[in-house]
Design goal:
Elements: E1 27-31, E2 44-47, E3 49-56, E4 74-80, E5 90-98, E6 101-110, E7 113-122, E8 127-135, E9 138-143, E10 146-151, E11 158-163, E12 177-184
Antiparallel strand pairs: 1-12, 2-11, 3-8, 3-12, 4-5, 4-11, 5-6, 6-7, 8-9, 9-10
Length: 186
Amino acid sequence: MLSVIALSGCQTATVTPAPVPEEIKPVVYTIKKGQHDSNAPFQIRNVSSLKFEATFNASAMYETAVKENQADINKLYGVADCHTDHHTNSVRFGWRWFNDQLEIHAYTYRNKERQSKLLGVVELNKTYTYEIVLADNKYIFKLNGETVELPRNCNGKGEGYQLYPYFGGDEVAPHDVTIAIRELES
């Protein structure tokens, strides 16, 4: 019995990945050296929750000029609340480079009183999901399976403006700081 094997010419196909749609790409916020904020646009928000991914790189490592300021909490992302300015009522995640690690904090103003609680530590160059739920009389923060609650000064949806990455307290960014953030469906 005779077997015939026919070989056809081999062709190499080039596969080009589909471009990532703009609505799912993260926004990279840069706080320039000597500045506090990233000059993001003013945006009104009306939300019952806020869910996003954030990635910090090595630019999140810093040393403050005044040693005591190393404990200051920088701000990541959140919203002003209760139809007031953010120093009266607001909710957001905070961050700081402290004890050679990147700490993430629950951070609020309630009737002009600031409060924060440590939520955990995140690794550089790794994406984490952050969530804030604006419930009646409380904020619920979620990160890495941890949950923290802080009191809220109003009920219903959060009505205010978007709060973007911010460096400081007292000091400005000692170098450019970049943070990638992508909002998710909540």
